[in-house]
Amino acid sequence: MISRFTSRIGTSIAAVAAVAAGTCIGAPLASADPIPDCSVGVVTSGQQCTLAPGLSLNLIIKGGNGGAGGNGGAGGAGGDGDTGSQTVSGGAGGAGGAGGNGGAGAKWQGIYVNSTASPQILTFTIGANGAAGTSGNDGAAGTSNTGSGQADGEAGASGDGGSGGAGGEDSTVVISGITVAFAVGGDGGNGGNGGNGGQGGQSVGLTSNGTGGSTGSAGASGSGGNLTTTWLESPFIEIGSVFIADSADSTPPMWMQSYGRATGIQCLSDWSASWAEWANFGRGGDVCNRYIVWRNGAYVKTTDPEQGPFTSWEGK
């Protein structure tokens, strides 16, 4: 603790310096809040947490989805023509093609272990979805030629194609500037093609409509994910569990459980039938067995500790 005398001297020196500099005094110095320990739950983008040595995280990461492509513009209608005795209507413009859907961001699950001797600060960045592409402009209508004898109307202009959607951003987990886990964002969808313009009315009394534009192709989904996902699922990062990393020295021992059963009675679910000498007061008999083992940071139950399958254990 600073003595009162020392404190006064320090204040006096600071006051003199502050007055000389023409500044105010007395405001306390700000101190940064400590970065909290990593805990289970969904994180926010930009959040940080501290992972102690020997601890592991079960991470679930979803990348941003690609934006949908813009729709193509409609083709312009053809101008009216004239046969000399009647007006011939121009053909309608074709509809623009729909933009392609964006690809889904990849979804990945895995375990990160702090195998160093020092605490590590993790920074989480959740990738944003890509923006949708803009629609193409409609084509202008063709000019009509009527009232002056036989004449063809002009064809309508084709619509513009829609622009492609932007790709989704990657979701990342970074330590000291190095990405240690990530999920790739999906590609943006291509824009739809513009519709073709309608044919102008013909002096011989014929006309035809413009054809529609083709649909844009969908963007590719992000690669490298090991979990299924859809374009409708928003990007996120979740810490599924925090646990002590398995090692040869720290893994808890396996626990075999067994109970006796009457002959012909089936075992309960998740138990396997066997025979043991201890049953029937040491005379031997039918039993049911299972094993409780430590696997990937949690206790699980199984009938075969080597091959599984492994299911969650509720401590019962």
Uncertain parts: 1-27
Largest sheet: 5 strands, antiparallel
Query: Fraction of residues in helices?
Result: under 10%
How many whole angstroms does the radius of gyration measure?
Answer: 36 Å
Structural class: mainly beta
Order of SSEs, N→C? Answer: HEEEEEEEEEEEEHEEE
Counted beta strands: 15
β-sheet strand percentage: 25-35%
Distance between the termini: 53 Å
- Average pLDDT figure: 84
Number of helices: 2
> What general outline do the C-alpha atoms trace?
elongated
Describe this structure in words.
By secondary structure, the chain is mostly beta strands. It has 2 helices and 15 strands. It has helices spanning 4-21, 279-282; strands at 41-42, 48-51, 55-62, 81-82, 87-88, 107-113, 120-125, 171-175, 178-183, 236-244, 255-260, 272-276, 285-295, 298-302, 311-312. Strand 13 and strand 14 (298-302) form a beta hairpin. The relative contact order is 0.20. Mean pLDDT is 84; it is low at 1-27.
